[in-house]
């Protein structure tokens, strides 16, 4: 049985914003990231799970119990916020133990939990410091320690790292994952940062305009995006898109391919010819951005320092086995793409520069020889 289950959850404001008909389930101990752009409804969904908002329709079930009408205090969960939510007049130890004192947990038990939480979050020796004496990363660790001492099975996190710089985000990200594993927590984590979602999660729920676009393991969302939105939101750089007819497919189809799978070649051996827009040297690799009138986000990742410069004309190979085919209008993945034999035949028999047109032959359907 699922530990957390959302059944048809809907919440909007005068027909605007919010979330619509969302159903999700999460097993005990799983780490779920709710990922999406600003305004997609991810924080609203977290507040509905927490009980800070009430759904207009649908049911929230936690550990087999319908909690839809219950307040946050009765849902047996803890929360970590973006703003840390620390009391400035209390020191680290007092902030961490505040909730335990309110619930009148015995002093000896409070001390045990405090000691364990401080060790787990690397705050040993900082017990007497006030929040103003701590760095941003340390303050967020105090918030994590407070969630740890609560010993609730479900922990909700609302963009907890967005106030930290890049180096601290990476460090605290490891702390969060270790904390979840050590305590056996079930975590629902809201973020707009795909790097956080992909590295932390067992499962990612990608949201778009109040609805769940795709749910699955991070590798599935990356390698098998179900929609054009997922293909473009997941990945840095995102998936390149090319109009299907350019590659011999029927009208209304779009071909998607990850930049690291795209290859450069001599123009006469390529599927299309593109112009180099920009080259970004990233140390171990170079991202080469390309321009083609039938392509969007066309790019290739090359090892080391690339020799191409802006303005160069390059041949581009789009390996057929790595392509994802989408319906251009619905944005949804095509289960089985339909090729356009006539277009393929025209492309494969078109004369190249310096060549004469061949005599008419039987139609050729070799996708590896099409050009722009």
Automatic annotation (TrEMBL):
<dbReference type="GO" id="GO:0016887">
    <property type="term" value="F:ATP hydrolysis activity"/>
</dbReference>
<dbReference type="GO" id="GO:0140359">
    <property type="term" value="F:ABC-type transporter activity"/>
</dbReference>
<protein>
    <submittedName>
        <fullName>Carbohydrate ABC transporter ATP-binding protein, CUT1 family</fullName>
    </submittedName>
</protein>
<keyword id="KW-0472">Membrane</keyword>
<keyword id="KW-1003">Cell membrane</keyword>
<dbReference type="InterPro" id="IPR008995">
    <property type="entry name" value="Mo/tungstate-bd_C_term_dom"/>
</dbReference>
<dbReference type="GO" id="GO:0005524">
    <property type="term" value="F:ATP binding"/>
</dbReference>
<dbReference type="InterPro" id="IPR003439">
    <property type="entry name" value="ABC_transporter-like_ATP-bd"/>
</dbReference>
<feature type="region of interest" description="Disordered">
    <location>
        <begin position="333"/>
        <end position="372"/>
    </location>
</feature>
<dbReference type="InterPro" id="IPR013611">
    <property type="entry name" value="Transp-assoc_OB_typ2"/>
</dbReference>
<dbReference type="InterPro" id="IPR047641">
    <property type="entry name" value="ABC_transpr_MalK/UgpC-like"/>
</dbReference>
<keyword id="KW-1278">Translocase</keyword>
<comment type="similarity">
    <text>Belongs to the ABC transporter superfamily.</text>
</comment>
<dbReference type="InterPro" id="IPR003593">
    <property type="entry name" value="AAA+_ATPase"/>
</dbReference>
<dbReference type="Pfam" id="PF00005">
    <property type="entry name" value="ABC_tran"/>
</dbReference>
<keyword id="KW-0813">Transport</keyword>
<dbReference type="Pfam" id="PF08402">
    <property type="entry name" value="TOBE_2"/>
</dbReference>
<dbReference type="InterPro" id="IPR017871">
    <property type="entry name" value="ABC_transporter-like_CS"/>
</dbReference>
<dbReference type="InterPro" id="IPR027417">
    <property type="entry name" value="P-loop_NTPase"/>
</dbReference>
<dbReference type="InterPro" id="IPR012340">
    <property type="entry name" value="NA-bd_OB-fold"/>
</dbReference>
<keyword id="KW-0067">ATP-binding</keyword>
<keyword id="KW-0547">Nucleotide-binding</keyword>
<feature type="compositionally biased region" description="Polar residues">
    <location>
        <begin position="336"/>
        <end position="350"/>
    </location>
</feature>
<feature type="domain" description="ABC transporter">
    <location>
        <begin position="4"/>
        <end position="234"/>
    </location>
</feature>
<dbReference type="GO" id="GO:0055052">
    <property type="term" value="C:ATP-binding cassette (ABC) transporter complex, substrate-binding subunit-containing"/>
</dbReference>
